[in-house]
């Protein structure tokens, strides 16, 4: 009787495996058939999260432009190296002087998260100085679109960002509110607007007839401007200094890194991604350089990554980036194995719930994934919970379609629904 029960259990398990295999083969066969008639490129890789068993592959080892799917690699690299909280700034007190140094913190004075740091500066009795230090990178990354400098998704990188390196404008009738107020006289009303900012200076332009809510425009950054903005905010002079004294700085810590990770991923915030990689470069290589952080991550955390990527920035703004679907699921598997699952999933946009997946994947709350979008390119990579409670890792990458991304999103949505119901 015991032998019969064991044989029955084995039969059921084998049947389940064979059923799963047949489902995978059917889905993959349909994918190949449909892709033969398509005029754009797509690559897909799907595997079981627990076992790493490959379920479905289509052009999984080909290179694609990933757009913001790059933020998956930024998330993992930052998580491995930045376990605590980001310093609002570094500081040292010398006699009657308080000397500040930037730390690539992207959130200083962007919202209420900087309350403690701001209070520390306002309550200081010392004269305040800012060191004239710089990042090793250019303010824009390799392969970024140079004429996107007026858009809020591409602020300049900087060692001491302030207000997120953007101004915020609200206009109702003749009433205009500008944050920071420092720039109010630099905002001009015009009948029509071709560019909302002059390329090399901080002169801003807003359409006079229109009402505007929370319009964000990047400003041209510099250390002197940071000192001036701090002076305006603190209502006292902050002096920029250039000396080579090796002070023993201390970190003024305030914001947990988890807060940055969630904001970066859910909102697909390019600025946070770039600043986090600058911070990683400082921690691992002693230099505020995104490329240094990338090199360190590839050598130390991903030496066996399939189809070694061309990885050039932290955000995915660059069209120089090249990744394969197989390299995406490789990383997602590493994160699944190393990061507590509840914490890991909390970093991701969720289908129909929040972030970049709120509107495009409605009624699909079983999806936890990062989208990536540039003109003519759309990708989605992440995790999916099946009806049976299994976790599946997937990457679905599409490039070079001539129309909008809406058709690709519907295509991916239907595919993920099939995975959800089939496994």
From TrEMBL:
GO terms for molecular function: serine-type D-Ala-D-Ala carboxypeptidase activity. It is an enzyme of class 3 (hydrolase). The keyword Iron does not apply. Its EC number is 3.4.16.4. PROSITE patterns: PROKAR_LIPOPROTEIN. The keyword Hydrolase applies. It holds the Pfam family Peptidase_S13. Gene3D superfamilies: DD-peptidase/beta-lactamase superfamily. Keywords: Carboxypeptidase, Hydrolase, Protease. InterPro entries: Beta-lactam/transpept-like, Peptidase_S13. PANTHER family: D-ALANYL-D-ALANINE CARBOXYPEPTIDASE (PTHR30023), PENICILLIN-SENSITIVE CARBOXYPEPTIDASE A (PTHR30023:SF0). Belongs to the peptidase S13 family. This is D-alanyl-D-alanine carboxypeptidase.
């Amino acid at each position: 009787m015991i032998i019969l029960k064991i044989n029955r259990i084995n039969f059921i398990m084998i049947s389940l495996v064979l059923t799963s295999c047949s489902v995978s083969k059917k889905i993959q066969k349909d994918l190949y058939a449909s892709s033969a008639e398509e005029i754009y490129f797509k690559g897909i890789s799907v595997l079981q999260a627990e076992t790493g068993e490959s379920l479905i592959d289509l052009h999984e080892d080909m290179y694609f432009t990933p757009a913001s799917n790059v933020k998956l690699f930024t998330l993992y690299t930052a998580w491995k190296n930045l376990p605590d909280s980001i310093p609002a700034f570094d500081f040292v007190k010398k006699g009657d002087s308080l000397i500040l140094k930037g730390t690539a913190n992207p959130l200083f004075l962007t919202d209420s998260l900087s309350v403690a740091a701001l209070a520390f500066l306002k309550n200081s009795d010392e004269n305040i100085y800012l060191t004239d230090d710089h990042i090793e990178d250019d303010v824009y990354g390799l392969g970024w679109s140079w004429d996107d400098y007026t858009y809020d998704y591409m602020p300049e990188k900087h060692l001491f960002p302030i207000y997120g390196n953007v101004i915020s404008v609200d206009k109702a009738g003749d009433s205009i509110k500008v944050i920071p107020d420092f720039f109010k006289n630099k905002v001009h009303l015009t009948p029509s607007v071709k560019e909302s900012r002059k390329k090399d200076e901080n002169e801003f332009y807003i359409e006079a007839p229109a009402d505007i809510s929370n319009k964000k425009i990047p400003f041209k950054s510099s250390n002197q401007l940071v000192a001036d903005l701090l002076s305006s905010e603190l209502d006292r002079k902050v002096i920029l200094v250039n000396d080579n004294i090796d002070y023993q700085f201390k970190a003024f810590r305030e914001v947990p890194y988890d807060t940055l990770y969630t904001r970066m991923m859910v909102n697909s915030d390019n600025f946070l991604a770039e600043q986090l990689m600058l911070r990683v470069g400082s921690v691992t290589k002693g230099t505020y350089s995104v490329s240094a952080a990338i090199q360190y991550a590839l050598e130390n955390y991903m030496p066996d990554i399939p189809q070694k990527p061309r990885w050039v920035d932290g955000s995915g703004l660059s069209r120089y980036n090249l990744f394969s679907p197989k390299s995406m699921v490789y990383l997602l598997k590493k994160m699944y194995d190393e990061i507590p699952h509840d914490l890991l999933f909390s970093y991701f946009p969720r289908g129909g719930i929040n972030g970049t997946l709120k509107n495009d994947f409605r009624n699909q709350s079983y999806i936890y994934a990062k989208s990536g979008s540039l003109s003519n390119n759309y990708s989605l990579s992440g995790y999916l919970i099946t009806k049976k409670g299994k976790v599946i890792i997937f990457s679905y990458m599409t490039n070079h379609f001539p129309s909008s991304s809406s058709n690709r999103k519907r295509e991916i949505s239907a595919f993920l629904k099939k995975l959800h119901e089939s496994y």
